[in-house]
Amino acid sequence: MVAGLVIFFYRLGGPGLIDPDEGRYAEIAREFFVLRDWGIPHLNLLPYLEKPPLVYWLTALSFKVCGFTEMAARLPSAVSALGGVFLAYGLGRAFWGPGPGMLGALVLASAAGYVALGRILTLDMTFALWLNVGIGLGYLALSRGQNRLWPWAYLALALAVLTKGPVALVLAGLVWVIWVIVNRRSGRPLIQIRGWVLLAVITLPWFVYVQWRYPEFFRFFILEQHLGRFLTPAIHPEPLWYYVPVVLGLLLPWTWLLPWTLAAAGRWRDPDYRFLVIWAAVIVVFFSLSRGKLVPYILPALLPLALLVGHGLARLTGVGRMFFNSRWLKTSLLVWAVTGVALVGLSLWPPGFLVKALARANFSLAYLLTLSLVWALTPLAALIWRHLGALLLGALLLSALVPRGIDQVSLGRSFKDMGLALKSRWQPGAALVGVQIYSQGLSFYSGQIFHLLGCRTELDLGLRLTPEKGLCLADKEALPAFIAGTPVTFFFLKAEALPWLAQGLPGNFRPLASHKDCILSIYEGK
């Protein structure tokens, strides 16, 4: 409990919100208060219907209680991450006892990718929590005959649907059906009428309401955002093998023990072990088959993988000491140590490509060196002292370094300073124009919306649904008339686009703030 609170909540509000995701979701929640329309999510005052509203509602509630701060924005993700750790403990304890449950929870809480995604505002950690609660409780109902758990499983799946959509039902159904087939449990009831009624009562009102407000919603949400992303490479295309390195990277440092965990003889005879393998495999295979891919989609697979590693660790300990009677285990720890030593070498004598990559990510060599030293020393300490505590302590130290990495990424991808500068200079009647780009975080920190010139964005649907709001400037020729109607106009654009914008416009552009290659300028007419 204490470790989870420190890992997920210490300095949670330190770094500025990262564009685009954190800025987007925080701004959507802020606009609930601006428009007082809690049924339809809006971004830039335009309907934003890509995802259901549960995380937006939770973020808005957090803002109401804690104020419009970075900590409040990230609170739903952090609470969901901690909830996932408790879920891992509960399921591990139900399967094999408190020891494996605790180890599985610690593995999950110290997985670098899980920690990182638990400390930033996205929909994925909340979705992973509710989806995994639903899958886990449904499995306990199926395997133990605990039918009282079915309503809770469907309640969790309903909340997952309100987080990211009906994909939650597809994933849960696949896991359960495949487990029933593999274990020849065809007599187990999979269709729970009361569960589906509960699911419909919770989820359908919002979907029906949005469809009533905007008849284009079904085509956009189901056909384009779900089936379209799965079947076509139009949005975030990646190769079939994309999620193999991704899931291994998110599970670090425990990735190195996965081969040993999965290769152990006799474990496949354990039905709970088989279920966890099926659970993780369904998530990875399903999203691998999707033509559109993003890193956080695979997050629900980390919990079953962490439980598998925790189960393996529990089997080789005796009062904390590790028994090295497995060649696979020794090899896994040696590979872990060698990769750490290699990273130390790269940190001390970095090649040119690494220096450039670190600069793009805004990481320092000192940070990489610290990370590499802990990475290398953790398995070496375990091999020398043969104590499980060395592995757990090293993994927790690595997870404690993750927030520092997020801080450094935020410095390069947060428009907090620019947004606060704009807020300090704003005056009634002013306008903010995004020239071929726009920033969700800039809107959140300044409290202002964009007029858009010459860019296609995620706001295209909202612009089509509400053209009367006049937030889209057709071309550069529309600027003189627009500027004449405002006391002051702010322009957000790439520095390289400023000469093009200034050409033909009388007056001067005075820089107000800059961030990397983006600038914020005040237009001063003659």
Mean pLDDT over all positions: 89
| Helix fraction by DSSP (H/I, runs of at least 4) | 55-70%
Classify the secondary structure makeup into a structural class: alpha/beta
The largest sheet is:
6 strands, mixed
Net shape: globular
Tally of helical segments: 24
Biggest sheet: strand arrangement: 7-6-5-8-10-9
| Rg, Å, rounded | 25 Å
Q: Number of DSSP strands?
A: 10
Distance between the termini: 63 Å
Tell me what portion of residues adopts beta-strand conformation: 5-15%
How many domains? The number is 3
Low-confidence runs of at least 5 consecutive residues:
none
Report on this structure.
By secondary structure, the protein is of the alpha/beta class. It folds into three domains: 17-314, no CATH class; 326-414, no CATH class; 416-524. It has helices spanning 2-9, 21-35, 54-66, 70-96, 98-109, 112-118, 124-144, 150-164, 167-182, 193-213, 217-231, 243-250, 258-263, 271-289, 302-315, 327-348, 352-361, 365-385, 388-413, 416-425, 440-446, 460-465, 479-484, 498-502, and strands at 42-43, 46-47, 317-318, 321-322, 431-435, 451-453, 472-473, 489-494, 508-515, 518-524. The strands form three sheets. The protein has a six-stranded mixed sheet with strand order 7-6-5-8-10-9. Strands 1-2 form a two-stranded antiparallel sheet. The protein has a two-stranded antiparallel sheet with strand order 3-4.
